[in-house]
Amino acid sequence: MLWNEGTRPMRMSRLMVKTLREAPAEAELPSHRLLLRAGLIVPLAAGLYCFTPLGWRVHKRLETIIREEMDRYGAQEVHLPALHPLETWEQSGRATTMGPVLFHLRDRKEREFVLGPTHEEVVSHLASRHIQSYRDLPFTLYQIQTKFRDEPRPRGGLIRLREFFMKDAYSFDADWESLDQSYQEAFDAYVRIFSRAGVPVVAVEADSGAIGGKDSQEFVFLTESGEDEILLCDGCGYAANAEKADFRKPPAVAGEPLPIEEVATPGITTIADLAAFLGIEERQTAKAVFYLADGEPVFVCIRGDLEVNETKLRNALKAADLDPMDEAAVRKHGLIAGSASAVGLKGMRVVADPTAVEAPNLVAGANKADTHLRNVNHGRDWRAGIVSDIALARDGDLCAQCDGRLRGRRGIEMGHVFKLGTMYSEAMGVHYLDETGAQQHAVMGCYGIGVERMLAAVIEANHDDNGIVWPPSVAPFDVHVVVIGAGNDDVDSTLAELESRLEAAGMSALVDDRDDSPGIKFNDADLLGMPVRITVSPRALKNGGVELKLRREGDAEVIPLAGVVERVQAAQQAGGYGG
RNA sequence: CGGGGUGUAGCUCAGCCUGGCAGAGUGCUUCGUUCGGGACGAAGAGGUCCCCGGUUCAAAUCCGGGCACCCCGACCA
User: Fold this and answer.
1) What gap in Å lies between CA A157 and CA A28, rounded to an integer?
2) How many Å apart are A510 CA and B54 C1'?
3) What stretch(es) of chain A map to CATH 3.30.930.10?
4) Fold for the domain defined by A30-245+408-459
5) Amino acid A454 CA to nucleotide B11 C1' distance, rounded Å
6) From the C1' of B34, which residue's alpha carbon is nearest?
7) What pLDDT digit, counting tens, does each position of A36-89 carry?
8) Closest nucleotide relative to residue A20's CA, C1' based
9) Which nt is closest to the CA of A517, judged by C1'?
């Protein structure tokens, strides 16, 4: 649990760190500001940071927690190359689907390589060399390794990097039932990892993409500054990424189909205006949205009171790429934005949400300006090529599973567990012979955790106005010793005694021996955030010992030197993060 | 890639509009006084004013182009 047992306490005067009184202007997130102010990281370029000794110690402790929990359930650590031949990515087809995020390079013989953004292909290659029989399954491999992604927008300090450490694990099973168990083991390990590291997370259902796959869950750290929209039911435990979230849609206004008729709607181009103008509800209208799916025009229709979920739409279309049409494309395909409908539409695919198909007598566009149609009915007036749930769940919507309501929250994805299935084992040739001698593809799962992102979240979740408040499990040092009055014989001898006691107990300590004022030292101690602060000073000695203060609590107390180790241990236990 | 913002001392920023000695705070060095919550005095060091080009007697300042960084959206751990 303590990798640095027996090491001498680190002297602040020797530690390669410089705290900053003010954070650089570009840093906005608390974690970003504190990482820079405490000198844990130093920027090199957008999305690239150097870790200082202090920052790297935290990184290593997080890695240790991850390794222990992965090893605990039998996952086996490996190391895979970060440099991959381009052919490996062509073999899976992801050289094109992941195209823009891949960093490309060539060797001296002009052979093309990429820097690995993830390792499904390579681990599949490795596994394929081993797996021959069902007797070789199941197993889970993992590594903690650098990933490279040419992100469109690195951001938030350690939140979104171009080079980062990921703990990525891959399970190989003979069938889906066995995968369920491997998946559950990984899931349980993740719960323990985040709990130990002091990162509160919620597991939410996530989109598994158009590439097949089955269950997929994300471990999300809830924070206003998060980039993901999460929906949580206030009634049952349902939690899902907005991309995936299911909800109960309001019922349609019932009625027998009436004859279609044109109505003049001068200047009306939005659903809200249309409903107000005609004195009807938004759910009595049909909303039209236009997309380009892999370059092909797609007409999308949904009931007017709902929004389109682009992830669900992409999946329904099995499209790799989906973008809303810009004005030029809208014109090019002869669509009238604000007055469009699928009635009489030709030359493009039509995708509809069931709500637009089931509701009778909707008001839809007439495909000419300032005009709409009343009483449009699916089947009679238009027909969708694809009918699929493409509605976006929003804050306040009804839960699909209980009578509760969904609440929208923001969050950052810390980890992802995903039942991949056989996509990669088919592409990369990972197969085995079953009991009957038939060739089968291994069923895979993959499980990722972003280490730096987790570090940032630890700080987001554990800080106050004065600085970081490390959970004992990941603090760079167990104890921060502030020395006041160095040169005084009693202070010097007490410090020496304290240091040897801490060392003997296997506790790591940072000793602020700098020739600075007490105020500077106390403020730095708060900023750096070690769980326990011990002050050695003439005043404390006069009061019978050294002063001990917990970072997460306000008051200090003087205790005899002999009681220090015991108190520090108690504080570590009380931290609530099983070390 | 679209939109917005910023670039001047290690850090935070002023100066730019209205062209004319490159500045403040903080940090750093030295000396002295201090010594329990970012002390005080004195003396110093520190600059490609993001880059390239243009205008001008003269450019941090005006004009053109480029780059970098940050923030918001489409993607991910």
Assistant:
1) 9
2) 57
3) 30-245+408-459
4) BirA Bifunctional Protein; domain 2 (3.30.930)
5) 27
6) A517
7) 999 999 999 999 999 999 999 999 999 999 999 999 999 999 999 999 999 999
8) B11
9) B35
Block residue for tokens 């929209």: A229
Residue labelled with tokens 């990424």:
A241
CA triple A224-A230-A232, angle to 5 deg: 110
Give the CA-to-C1' distance from A518 to B13 in angstroms: 28
- Measure, in angstroms, how far nucleotide B63 C1' is from residue A68 CA: 62
Which single residue has its CA nearest the C1' atom of nucleotide B74?
Answer: A323
- Provide, in whole angstroms, the distance separating residue A13's CA from nucleotide B10's C1': 18
Distance A465 CA to B9 C1' (A): 28
CA A27 to C1' B61, in angstroms, rounded, equals: 28
**What is the ipTM for the molecules in this complex?**
0.93
Pick the CATH number of A261-387 from 2.60.40.10, 3.20.20.30, 3.40.30.10, 3.90.960.10: 3.90.960.10
Helix (H, G, I), strand (E, B) or coil at A474: coil
Residue nearest to nucleotide B5 (CA to C1'): A26
Residues of chain A with CATH 3.40.50.800: 469-574
Nearest to A103 by CA among A159, A162, A167: A162
Distance A403 CA to B7 C1' (A): 54
Both tokens of A70, joined, read 């992965």
- How far is residue A198 CA from its own chain's centroid? 16
Chain B: nucleotides under 7 Å from a protein CB?
A: 1-2, 5-6, 10-13, 25-27, 34-39, 68-77
The nt closest to A482 (CA vs C1′) is B36
Model pLDDT for residues A466-525, shown as the tens digit of each residue: 999 999 999 999 999 999 999 999 999 999 999 999 999 999 999 999 999 999 999 999
Contact A222, A410 (CB under 8 A): yes
Q: Which nucleotide is nearest to A44 (CA to C1')?
A: B69
Alpha carbon distance A143, A77 (integer Å): 5
For A299-355, the DSSP string reads EEEEETT--B-HHHHHHHHT-S-EEE--HHHHHHTT--TTS--STT--SSEEEE-HH
Which nucleotide is closest to the Cα of A412 by its C1'? Answer: B77
Q: Which CATH superfamily is domain A469-574 in?
A: Anticodon-binding domain (3.40.50.800)
Indicate whether A4 pLDDT > 70.
no
Cα distance between residue A148 and residue A103, in whole Å: 7
Vertex A511: Cα angle to A506 and A514 (nearest 5)? 165
Q: Where in chain A is the domain with CATH 3.90.960.10?
A: 261-387
Using the CA of A159, give the nucleotide whose C1' is nearest: B77
**Tell me, what's the pLDDT at A456?**
96
pLDDT tens sequence across A108-165 = 999 999 999 999 999 999 999 999 999 999 999 999 999 999 998 899 999 999 999 9
Peptide bond into A138 cis (omega under 30): yes
Q: What is the pLDDT of residue A457?
A: 96
Q: Is A219 helix (H, G, I), strand (E, B) or coil?
A: strand
**% of chain A beyond a pLDDT of 90:** 77
